[in-house]
Amino acid sequence: MNLSEVTYPRDTKNRVQNLLVQEARRTPKLIPRWRKPAMLTFAGLALAGTTAAGVYVAMAPVEDKRDIRCYYRADLTTRLPVVGVPGETKNPYITTGIFIAGFDTENNPNPEDRNAGMKQVVDPINQCSRSWDMGNMHQTGVNDDLIPEGFVSPAPGAMPTGEGVRDQNGKPLFPDPAIKASGNYIPFLTACVVDNTVAVIPGPAEVCARLGIPTLEK
Amino acid sequence: MGETDEDLWRKCIAGNADAFGMLFDRHADAVFRYCLSRCGSWHDAEELVSITFLEAWRQRNRLRPERDTVLPWLLGVATNANRNRARGSRRHADFLARLPHSDPRHGESEADHAESVASRLDAERAVRELLDTTAGLNDGERDVVILCLMNGAGQEEAAKALGVRIGTVKSRLHRARAKLAAMNQELDPIEKLDTTIVEARMS
């Protein structure tokens, strides 16, 4: 045994790194001592001026919502293995969007715009719910633990037959009745903001705060 | 070329969690090896790495990096974290509860799994054997043996990690070598440990 050849197991290293970064994001920034009295005064004034002091929740807007990230898990950094390609990894999310029908890519007026030909997504939760329903988010089994015990997933390759399926907000997944739902598990989703992009993450409303990122401002 | 430790650490002081993640990625292996050589248990070493980096983040304002690497300081944090493991574990209980422990089966075939388990047991056994050889040393001498001989740290780095003068490291190392050599003399020829071989093998 040569100690210099021992390495921290890669899998654990990635996950611990992710946890540490999340933990560091949650830790309040260190404030120089000389600034603390002023901070307290302002905080006092702010409290005095309001009747209700609730839990602070960071929110941020996203102007360009043409590409939406649907995360596989409430985990922003761990890259996931690509099935069938040993050693290869992929992003912890898929990117989705809605193409503009008839957009002519040959005559793109703005070739620099990487999202040219895509619409603004009005409802990111609904958009990602569709990806979950269609099974795009279940492909590698990395989030099987999110599926409740007893939930019956459709057989691989089965034709979509679900009708009238709605997302968590009661909106139809597929407004066109000709398009059926596949019936894969859709967890509760929350829209957060990562890299100035909408990030739809499986988890309760506080998942953004838990990950140290802002919730999407509506 | 990427950012230096000094650049990243300044960002950490400003509260940049991603910079902290990059430093973790850069030094986790060395800190893990050091923790393994201190406690001799793979599982405990994995926990100790986390406690070390959590403490490093908590104490980030105390370090003003002057040199290229923060590794000696991290090893110093690991040394103290190992001594105060019970207290650290209590303080970071919430975090440790979420901590994944490596599963050698992850993404591996049965044969690879068996090989991983065997190599871990092999590593643990070898480290314990080496730690046994340091049983006659006092804490200070054992610190420098683990840092300098088992982990290949330079004497200056060891001094920084332990918060002592370089002369102290030199004298402790000298005494430790003398004790190890004396202990070696007492063993049967077949059990004798060639310290030069150990040093070459472990550094």
Lay out the secondary structure.
The complex is a heterodimer of chains A (218) and B (203).
Chain A: H1 10-26, H2 36-48, E1 59-60, E2 68-71, E3 80-81, E4 89-90, E5 93-96, E6 98-99, E7 118-119, H3 124-134, E8 189-194, E9 197-202, H4 207-211, E10 215-216
Parallel strand pairs in A: 1-10, 2-9
Antiparallel strand pairs in A: 2-5, 3-4, 6-7, 8-9
Chain B: H1 5-13, H2 17-39, H3 42-58, H4 71-83, H5 85-91, H6 93-98, H7 110-133, H8 139-150, H9 155-162, H10 166-186, H11 195-202
Describe this entry's structure for a reader:
The complex is a heterodimer of chains A (218) and B (203). With 218 residues, chain A is an alpha/beta fold. Chain A is 21% helix and 15% strand. Chain A is built from 4 helices and 10 strands, in the order ααβββββββαββαβ. A 4-stranded mixed sheet of chain A has the order 5-2-9-8, covered by helices on one side. A two-stranded parallel sheet of chain A has the order 1-10. In chain A, strand 3 and strand 4 (89-90) form a beta hairpin. The longest helix of chain A has 17 residues, at 10-26. Chain A is globular. Chain B is an all-alpha fold. Chain B folds into 2 domains: 5-97, RNA polymerase sigma factor, region 2, helix turn helix motif (Rna Polymerase Sigma Factor, Chain: A), CATH 1.10.1740.10; 111-202, Winged helix-like DNA-binding domain superfamily/Winged helix DNA-binding domain (Arc Repressor Mutant, subunit A, Orthogonal Bundle), CATH 1.10.10.10. Chain B has helices spanning 5-13, 17-39, 42-58, 71-83, 85-91, 93-98, 110-133, 139-150, 155-162, 166-186, 195-202. Chain B is globular.
Q: Assembly state here?
A: heterodimer
What's the CATH H-level superfamily name of the largest domain in chain B? RNA polymerase sigma factor, region 2, helix turn helix motif
Average of pLDDT of chain A: 79
Count of DSSP strands of chain A: 10
Distance between the termini of chain A: 57 Å
The coarse overall form of chain B would be globular
Low-confidence stretches of chain A: 33-56
Report the sheet with the most strands of chain B, covering strand number, pairing sense and barrel closure.
none
| Cα gyration radius of chain B (Å) | 18 Å
Q: How do the SSEs of chain B run, as a string of H and E?
A: HHHHHHHHHHH
Greatest interface:
A-B, 29 and 48 residues
* Beta-strand content bin of chain A: 5-15%
Largest sheet of chain A: 4 strands, mixed
Mean pLDDT of chain B: 77
Number of strands of chain B: 0
Helices and strands of chain B: which structural class? mainly alpha
